[in-house]
Amino acid sequence: MKAVLLRGFGQPLTLEELAVPQPLADEVLVKVHACGVCHSDLHLAEGDWDLLKDMTKLPLVLGHEVVGVVDSVGENVTSLRAGDRVGVPWLHWTCGKCEYCREGREVLCSKQTITGVTVDGGYAEFLKAKAEYCAKIPANLESAATAPLLCAGLTAYRALKQSGLAAGQRLTVYGIGGLGHLAIQIGKAKGAVVSAVDIEEAKLELAKECGADWTGREKPERAHVAIVTAANVKAYETALKGLKKGGTLMVVGMPAEPFPVSAVRMVSGEYRIMGSAVGTRQDLRELLELAAEGQVRCRHEVRPLAEAGAALEELKRNRVSGRLVLQAG
After folding, report:
1. Domain spans of the chain?
2. Is 67 left (phi over 0), alpha (psi -120 to 50) or beta?
3. Per-residue pLDDT tens digits for 218-265
4. Are 44 and 116 in contact (CB under 8 A)?
5. Which residues, 6+ apart, have CB-to-CB distance to 209 below 8 Å?
6. What is the C-alpha separation between 284 and 89, in angstroms, rounded?
7. N or C: the chain end with fewer CB closer than 10 Å?
């Protein structure tokens, strides 16, 4: 099979011929139809996330936003069969036994394995995945448009779910890129009044197309919830100032440097700052239901698998509106 390999941090990706992987008893072999290109892939390839660098498998097939069709199943698999269309997300496997797994917070499992990080991902014609961690894709969803929901959409969905955002409340989204334009749609689906903040006019236009009630470069009316999807310290500073008293700031974008927080301001306004990581299997099921209802759709562009390296370079240069998706063949 054709696959794109990362052989070393900071090295160019290479298109190579590899053996088709063979699924274990609890796994399925998936023929990849589409794989989203995530900013996380760029950080992994460059080795600039210390937390994940030591656990990253090398050589590695990147990619954790995968939609494809089950080609074959392991001998113990009963939940899926050949021909099923599935999504393979970031969360490849968890132990199911630790306190976090038992509490329904499997994204915090310390024993978890990660698609396209600790095991090979979807920048390939085939990959294998744990059957119980694959999500069935609704029939009315197109593969390329759905692939980015497996991470970008899921991350935005879980963050807004954890924020407690309620219908009628004000939500401000800072950074209208791959995650941000999906966060707008999810916020609208929850019945929120959504504002979008970005410094680029093209991205503000995208925000309007996604249903934002207000767009601009300055902070709007103070929000009940703010979500920062940009990896930018200034965005966090602006977002904190743009919260109403008792408001919640959701931390999603990950700048390399810390952002300042005033303890006096935090106490006097009873603000909350919460981090949110990817999403659980249940979160993904809920998101796919929203997408099947037509409430969430990813703006995307398709690239051939052989152009994976060029796609990462586009991300690095901030030339992408929405998401890029790789397709083999």
Report:
1. 2-149+279-327, 153-275
2. beta
3. 766 899 999 999 989 999 999 999 999 999 999 999 887 889 999 999
4. yes
5. 299
6. 9
7. C
Q: Does residue 35 contact residue 88 with C-beta atoms inside 8 Å?
A: no
Phi, psi of 50 (to 5 degrees): -55, -35
CATH class entry, domain 153-275: alpha beta
CATH superfamily of 2-149+279-327: Medium-chain alcohol dehydrogenases, catalytic domain (3.90.180.10)
Each residue's pLDDT tens digit, 125-148 = 999 999 999 999 999 999 999 999
Tokens of 187: 């916020």
Return the structure tokens found at 294: 């037509």
Give the global pTM: 0.96
189 HSE (CA, 13 A, CB side): 24
The DSSP output letter for 305 is G
User: How far apart (Å, rounded) are the C-alpha atoms in residues 96 and 76?
Assistant: 18
Dihedral (CA of 297, 299, 303, 305) sign: negative
Cα dihedral 102→291→252→311 (10° resolution): 120
Yes or no: say if 93 and 117 are a contact pair by the CB < 8 Å rule: no
Phi, psi of 133 (to 5 degrees): -110, 5
- What count of other Cβ atoms lies within 10 Å of the Cβ of residue 233? 16
Which residue intervals of 172-307 are DSSP H helices? 178-189, 201-209, 233-241, 263-269, 281-292
Three-state DSSP at 32 gives strand
